[in-house]
Every structure is written in structure tokens, then in C-alpha cells.
Amino acid sequence: MLRNLIYNITINSDNFGVNFVKNGKFTIWVPCQLSKVFPDDDYPECAENRVHISAARNEYEAFQVALKAKTDLREVRAKVGRLKHTGGYAITGENLKWNFVGLVPVKAIAALERKTWVPEQELVRTKPGLFPDPLLEDETASIPKGETRSIWVTVRIPEDAPSGNYFGKVLVMADGEKATVNVSLKVWNFTLPKESHMWLTHFMWVESGCQAYGIQLWSEDCWKLIKNYAEDMAAHRQNVILTPSFSLIKIYCDDAGNLSFDFTDFDRWVTLFKFKGIPLIEGFYLARAKIGDKSEKFPIRRKSDGALISNESYDTFGEEFEKYFGAYLKALEKHLEEKGWLKDFIIHLSDEPKPQGVAAYRRLGEVAKKYAPRIRRVDAIVLKDEIVGYIDIWVPLLSEYFTEYYKERQKMGEEVWWYTACMPRGNKYPNLFIDYPLIKVRIIHWLNFTYGIAGWLRWGYNYYFAPGGKEFLDPWQENQSKGAYPAGDPFFVYPGKNLKPLSSIRWEEVREGMEDYEYLWLLRKKIDEKRGSVEAAEAEKVMQQVLSEVASRLTDYTRDPTVLLRGREKIGEQIEKLSE
Question: pTM for this structure?
């Protein structure tokens, strides 16, 4: 199993000896950032109480401190001291954060089902139980005798931080006893771009969030929650947002049967997300998933008093569908052009269309192209030649990319993303389930770079419902939608205090992977700028070697966190050399 791996990214020290802290009440050590720390974990023989990390400016970097209780501990807390540069500058305050890693129940290891079989060595554990996932906001914790917990420490490197070496400490206190972890940080002499160079969308469900907090849908509290979600997404480098178009755009009909559209709430939504740093807007689906023969509901209000007079689904081959949805698409494109947002908007037709839904999907594509010809069409798909000309951004299942078909679409200049959902589970594919090792989350972004894939789409940022979307489920107790999905598939974040989402270690590794992608993108840019030089040739050689070791194919990627982290170090070294 991939756990209890020690965080051995060596920056300023070659000392790998045994060095953990044991006292009368607890023992602490530094596990690998990419390991999952379980209650029954013991400190490994090569444990250390020091950590060496590196990061660029404008990057987040994390590490863990594990603590095992020798007696019942009632009040465990931590303090992260400032990281001081040798020249006097210090990283302090809001740039230093720590959280206890909480435990949630995994009731079934879905990947062991026959139809989605995964080799046991690909899982972090093979039996149901309590698994680490949420980052808690509690300032103290109780730990029973004999059990282990983890503290997750996050460091953000300000853009004005000088490069060089920083030193600090993490203090762990429990019932009158203390222990210290020494921290050394190297800040590279380069800055990660603010904007990301691959697209990332994890669907945010407004109604689910409102139910979690007990607030009214589209109330001012709801908009505060949306703002907090936007800030959290942007902080994790998400740059695309699924938009509930038919809830935000008010559709009116006058006595003569003429339709008009009020974009006030839509504009508020788009402006909010763009202001928070999320530039690409995904319009909601025109029709229902899989078959696509019935449209989404089309809510029409009476112009005179705003009363809802119709909320019907239409046959996508019928005249009413084209009448109503054609008017909607035409008005939407016109409004986007007036606001200067046309290039920043894409639209979904129908999710995961099946072969028996080809005719309906083509119909949807035709209507969209006819009435909004400048809006690009995007969908998670399993179809191929049957829908050429009816889609602009192909999003096949990650495992589907083993076919050559989508490589050919790329060669033709078409944009290709990929998606993960409750699949792929079979074989050795990466995904982000709670019972998977964390490296399977982070490696996806490396594979995006290896394959030249422009984006990653997922359906679940905060989906807390049972299948069908009617019954709300407590995410602290149910993370599999009553067995419908693998553990953690429906969401990354948990409801926190003050309408703010709580992160998870999986969501943190999504950001780490996005930052890794920016390392690779930045090195590629530097190589291209210095093409023909000896330094560029050497950097190209290093990059290709690292990619072959870390992420050469969809199932042939490293499972060893040390290989990934050392590969990232080599990429950072080459960026720094080419930046001189």
C-alpha cells in the first residue's frame, strides 16, 4: 500500500537518518505529503522530525506532521512559526495555515467490485473503515490512546518573496507537552503564472450547497456562499464554472406570445466568477443526459407580473423546442457579444450521449449552431465519428484516450479535454476516490501535459444528494450517495462554518497537480525561447526523462511519491537555470 512514505525532497541537507520526537505522551514525525495517515499507523523506522520543501513564488506547498498518542490526549494543537529568509524577509500570517486531517467513513471499497476491478496494490486500503480526507477547522483535537492523526500544513509563497532559503518551526502541543518540527524552504527564483494553462472544471451545485447550510436558494446568503465557493475554486486554480443558466436567465412571455430575457442574475454570476479569477463560463445543458430526446425544463414567466406560467420539457425534434431554445440561444449569444464575453463562454448540449442518442445529439448541435453559431459546444462524450461537426470541444473519458481517435482530432486542430466521474475505476487508471492513494489525484495533471490534453472535467465539487438529486445526504457520514458512486466521487469540499467550504487532502492535491502542470508549461516555454542553445537542449533532455519516469502513459505512471516529487525538483532546477 502507498502510505507511510517519508517526505525526502532534500533541498539543503543530505541527512536521511532516523530522527523523530518521542516523549511521554506522544510521538511525532513527518510523513510524505502524498501519504494518507490512518488511525492505526505507527511511525516508520526512518521517520524524521524535519521537513525540506521547495516552491516557486505564487505557489502553495504543503507537508504533514503525524502524531501518535501514547495516552488519551484531550487538547492537541499546533502553531506554525514564521519562515524567515536568510536576508531577513519572512513569510508570516495568512500565508501559513494548518489543519487537522479529519476521518470519514468509507462504507464500501467500490473498486473491488468485479465489474470495476482494481488490483489491491492500487488502493490505499482494501477494507471499509475510517479514511483521512477533510481538512478540519477545529483549533484543538482529542486523540485516543494508540491512535494517530495528521496535521496538514500549507505554505503560500508571496509574489514578492525573495528567492533563497527560509527556516522555521512547527510546534505541536498536547496536554502540557511540546515537540518541534524543523522546516526549511527553498524559494525558487521564478514565479508561477497567476493564470493556469490547462482548463479545470469541477461542477458546483448551488442547491446542494444551500441545503448543506440551510439557506434559501438565490437568497443573499446563497450569493455569499457562491462567492466563497468561487474564492475557493480560484485558490485551487479552477478556471471554468458550470453555470445554471435556466435559473439565472429569466424568461418572460407577453400577451402576444413574444419572449424576452432578463440577464440580471446571469450577469451577476459571471461578473462574480470573473472577478474572483475564473474566466471561462460553461452554459448548462440544453437537454437531458444520455439520450437527449427531452430538453431541460424551460421556465417561462408572465411578463406582466412575473408569475411562472410554464416549466416544460420539450421533444428535441419538435417545433416548440426549436422555437423556445432557438430564441434563448439567439438572445444569449447577442448578450454575450454585448458584454464582451462571447469568447469566454462554452455550452453543453447533453451529457454523455449514448449511441442510441446520436440523432438527438445531432439535432441539439444543429440548433445550437443555427441560433448561436459563435458559441462553442462542449460535452463529456463516448461517441466519435457520429457527432463530428456537432461538437467543438471533445471531452472523452480519461481511459478512452488510449484510442487513436482523439489524437487525430487534435491533429485536425480540434480541442480535446478529458473527464473522470465514477469511472474509470477498472485496471490501473488514476482517479480521486478516497480509497485511492493521493498520487492518483496529482498525477492526472502530469498526464494532461504528457498527452497535450487541454482540460479536465469532473461532475462533483459539492454534490451532497442521493441519486436523482432529491434526498440530501450528510457529507460527513455519506460520501458514496448510498452506494451509487465510489467514495468521495460526488464532492471534494465539506460544509464549514460561516458559509465557507472546507477543503480535503484530495482537493489540495488537485491544486498541487495544477501547479506541477505550470512547472512543466513554464519549462516548455523557457526551452522554446532558448531553442538552439546548449542549455535548452539539456533542459529538454531532463524534461523528457522526468516525464518518462513520472507519467509516460495512462496506466504506466509512477506510484512512488518520491519519484514524482524529485521529478518536480528537477523541473524546477531547469526553469531556474533557463531564467538566469
Answer: 0.94
C-alpha cell at 35: 501519504
Count the Cβ atoms, other than its own, within 10 Å of residue 260.
13
Cell (9 digits) for 130: 475510517
Cell of 507: 482537493
Backbone angles phi, psi at 335, to 5 degrees: -65, -45
CA proximity to 491, closest of 277, 283, 205, 210 = 205
- Low-confidence spans in the chain with pLDDT less than 70: 1-23, 45-48, 110-117, 426-427
3-state SS assignment for residue 432: coil
Q: Which amino acid is at 76?
A: V
- pLDDT for 22: 66
pLDDT 10s digits, 284-293: 999 998 888 9
Please tell me the distance from the alpha carbon of residue 259 to that of residue 249, in angstroms, as a whole number. Answer: 12
Say whether 42 sits in a helix, a strand or coil: coil
What stretch of H or E contains 544? helix 534-550
State the cell numbers at 81.
Answer: 512559526
Q: C-alpha 85: how far from its chain's center?
A: 31
Query: According to the 3-state scheme, what is the secondary structure of 330-352?
Result: HHHHHHHHHHCCHHHEEEECCCC
DSSP code of residue 462: B
What does the alpha-carbon distance between residue 495 and residue 229 come to, in Å, rounded to a whole number?
Answer: 11
Dmax over Cα atoms in the chain, in whole Å? 83
Structural domains in the chain plus CATH codes: 1-191 (2.60.40.10), 250-383 (no CATH)
Residue 382: name the closest of 368, 366, 401, 409 by CA: 401
Cell numbers given for 256: 402576444
Amino acid letter for position 580: E
Q: Determine the Cα–Cα distance for residues 92 and 84; give it in Å rounded to an integer.
A: 9
Q: How far apart are CA 124 and CA 103, in angstroms?
A: 14
C-alpha distances (whole Å) from 458 to each of 226, 263, 429, 559 are: 18, 27, 15, 22
SS3 425: coil
Give the SS3 label for residue 499.
helix
